[in-house]
Model the fold of this input.
Amino acid sequence: QVQLVQSGTEVKKPGASVQVSCKASGYDFLGFGLNWLRQAPGQGLEWMGWISPKRGDTRTAGKFQDRVTMTADGYTTTAYMELNSLRSDDTAVYYCSRDFSDVLVGLPGFWAQGTLVAVTS
Amino acid sequence: EVVLTQSPGTLSLSPGERATLSCRASQSVSASYFAWHQQKPGRTPRLLIYATSARAPGIPARFSGSGSGTDFTLTITNLEPDDIAIYYCQQYSASPYTFGQGTKLEIK
Done:
């Protein structure tokens, strides 16, 4: 069965960077895209970006264009999202989510448990 | 960027009633690329509906989607206490793949 497991809680200072990992198993890692989303406390879902593990190409929401880097390692079946220049309003639960199907890009269908990133001085 | 606006913000209904949740897009979205997600309290989101009206695996027939162009609807019939959740619409037609702000469903 599809399983996505993210790295643990991070506490960072403003201006720092954070990297969140997402270990995938139970499916062809290279065959499906991965989305990164976040949810600030008490707020809704915000789509940040998408990566094709097979091709390495990415799509990124404009507000994160210059701060986020998404990568994927086919050997370890792990995806990574790095967010730079952290601010207090980046405090959120960050999720990776696999595309529901191999032909529907950007449709989260299987979710990891989420990683809390807290940005505080 | 396609902006999705959901209404109402909160919906309070009794068990057995029908819930109608709306989502309006700032520009036309292909019905093939419109979805609804459910997020129960303290849980990760779950895909309910994709391609406007197709139910994801394991989703009961009480949940149905409809719509086209800029107006889409999620209907939940015969409400159950377990349906308490926030429901989000999403378009995956054009990047960035945006979400609505959510409708909170309360069961009286």
Observations:
- The mean pLDDT of chain A is 97.
- Chain A touches chain B at residues 35, 44-47, 50, 59-62, 95, 97, 100, 104-109, 111-114 (CB under 8 Å).
